[in-house]
Design brief:
By secondary structure, the protein is mainly alpha-helical. Helices cover 51% and strands 9% of the residues.
């Protein structure tokens, strides 16, 4: 099951990197069948394709060192 083209399309639509795209494991067959931008948009709206939140840089160690 190769989902690289779906991941690439979803990342372009969502304007995020490809590594931040997450697929619902229960709907992988449906995602695999989606080949157009319109189908990918529908899956994003339905919640089958989601974004992974951005990771920030923790300032905890810097605060401790600064005291």
């Amino acid at each position: 099951m190769n989902l690289t083209s779906q991941r690439r399309l979803a990342s372009k639509i969502l304007k995020i990197g490809a590594t931040r795209v997450r697929f619902d494991s229960n709907r992988l067959f449906e995602i695999e069948q989606a080949i157009t931008r319109e189908e990918i948009r529908r899956l994003i709206k339905d919640g089958a394709i989601q974004t992974v939140p951005k990771k920030g840089v923790s300032r905890g160690r810097a605060r401790v060192l600064h005291q």
